[in-house]
Amino acid sequence: MEVCRDRRSLREFRSRLEGSVGFVATMGALHKGHLSLIEKSLQENKHTIISIFVNPTQFGENEDFGSYPRTLEADLALCKKAGVSAVFTPSVEDMYSTDEITFNPPKNMGYILEGFDRPTHFAGVIAVVLKLFMLVQPYRAYFGQKDAQQVLILQKMVRDLFLNLEIVPCEIMRDDDGLALSSRNIYLSQKERETALCIPRTIALVKKEIDNGEVKVDKLKTLALESLTQSETTLFYADFFNRELKPIAMIEKQKSIFLIALKVGKTRLLDNLWI
After folding, report:
1. Residue 181 marked as a ligand binder
2. Which of 205, 201, 239, 199 is nearest to 221 (CA)?
3. Known binder of ligand: residue 43?
């Protein structure tokens, strides 16, 4: 496994590769969710490249950029054991210059939900992912469906900018207790984690109602809000949309999504149900 610590070494490594290249962009603190993306890429491509970069531009003021978990040596060992071809671990200085050209997210998709509470977030995501795509030149890029809004915006970016690659959404991975895997889960105390289990319980409740034939969003949303409302949490949103992130009144199978953002203690947690 090659460890590329700057753009130059990554480009040199990439130029030697023949055949399909899969790519997984991460901010490190790797867990089973990341491993599932890596494994899918390994199955579908001749080569797999991983990036580990805590991207400052997607963090807003008073967010956890400084405290975000950084476990590089353990991450590299995990990637080597998994069998990836290379890991890209650049510095901030190598990825960004001064007075940069910037891209904004789409107005309708980028400033609702996560973009409403974190209005600079998706501009930062687009900036770093586009840079990484240009460096890695992947055939396919793998992203977890837990960050559903991010996946949908990146798919739109690929379409709108005519990028020659495929965004592959991958199934949400969950811990034994049902909580969606996230690097930020380490922030939760035991009591907070127990409180956070209202999220997967709500997901399961909504899925059961839909499986039983309920298609009216107002009824499903009322059910979800009753399940999520607890004194120890702050609910940002729990709502239903189509895959273009437009609000819907009725569920359409294979076209709808239920999105949740909830703060437990100081930790913002995301989850969703692709319907």
Report:
1. yes
2. 239
3. no
pLDDT of amino acid 63: 85
> Rounded to whole angstroms, what are the CA distances from 117 to 63, 110, 112?
12, 11, 8
Count of positions (residues) in the chain: 275
The answer on whether 130 is annotated among ligand-binding residues is: no
> pLDDT of 179-208, one tens digit each?
999 989 999 999 999 999 999 999 999 999
231 pLDDT more than 80: no
Distance CA 168, CA 166 (A): 6
Question: By the 8 A CB rule, do 169 and 40 touch?
Answer: no
Distance CA 55, CA 73 (A): 18
Whether residue 34 lies in the annotated active site: yes
Find out whether 27 and 63 touch, Cβ atoms under 8 Å: no
Q: How far is 78 from 74, CA to CA, in rounded Å?
A: 6
Q: Which two tokens stand for residue 14?
A: 């990439």
Catalogue the E-assigned strands of 54-183.
86-88, 140-144, 166-170
- Is 169 exposed, middle or buried (CB count within 10 Å of its CB: 0-12, 13-18, 19+)? middle
> Which residue is it, tokens 């975000």?
68
- CB atoms near residue 246 (< 10 Å): 10
CA atoms within a 13 Å half-sphere pointing along the CA-CB vector of 197: 10
Identified catalytic residue from 14, 34, 40, 156: 34
Model confidence, pTM: 0.94
Question: Tens digits of per-residue pLDDT, 87-116?
Answer: 999 999 999 999 999 989 999 999 999 999
Helix (H) or strand (E) holding 2: strand 2-4
Is the Cβ–Cβ distance between 175 and 246 less than 8 Å? no
